[in-house]
Amino acid sequence: MTAQAVALYDEPGPKALARHRLYGALALLVLAGVVAWLVYKLFDTGQFTAEKWNAFTYKGIQELLLRGLGNTLRAFAWAAVLSLAFGAVFAAGRLSDHRVVRWLSTLVVEFFRAMPVLVMIFFIFIALKVEPRWALVAGLTLYNGSVLAEVFRAGVHSVPRGQGEAAYALGMRKTQVMTYVLIPQGVRAMLPAVISQLVVALKDTSLGFLISYEEFLYAGRQIATNLDYSLPFIPVVMVIAPVYIGMCMALSGLAKWVEQRGRRSSRTG
Fold it and tell me: Looking at domain 56-268, which CATH architecture does it have?
């Protein structure tokens, strides 16, 4: 522990450490108990019988799931790129020196942040008669882009004020100050929140099934509704859920890798 950390926080003593270990052990026991109960209920209701899993060995069902997964990833890729672009544009607008631009950008960002994403998707799909994929992408872009605009703005403001003032003192224009000084330093503060929001966008692609977009969850629902045994949704969820969790963990892992790479390059630079 560093001297600064010791100065700010009391180092836990033997009793506190023992208490923390006890709390940790109790939490693990409770978690293990919950997991054991869930596994017992799954076995008790016959969710692991061969009858309920044979369907996933059929090529048609595998192709349906893969097609749904591909559609999910395509919608997410479009939504992620457009959300980042939307956020960058309106963050720049909110940081503008022109009052009208700043006011209009604030109005747009606050409006779409306040609107439920499902309402936007339905409005674009039904009222504007946009096809399902692009209605989903548009709704995700408007909502997540508005949140990212605030993340980008907060990231730029997180850079110490003296950095910008020093750049202006050297004769740099505002665009140069933003491009070469504030944004590169603000990225470190932005990155965790940006990735978290992209994870939200990835999970929200599942809303596409409500407008009949054939994404991963929609494919799972089609499979479950055609299975003729009790509780057909449970095996489907047990197949789909780990894939969603894996994609979100991969995205978070990518963020950590980029962050560590940025730290190493800043040290060597």
Answer: Orthogonal Bundle (1.10)
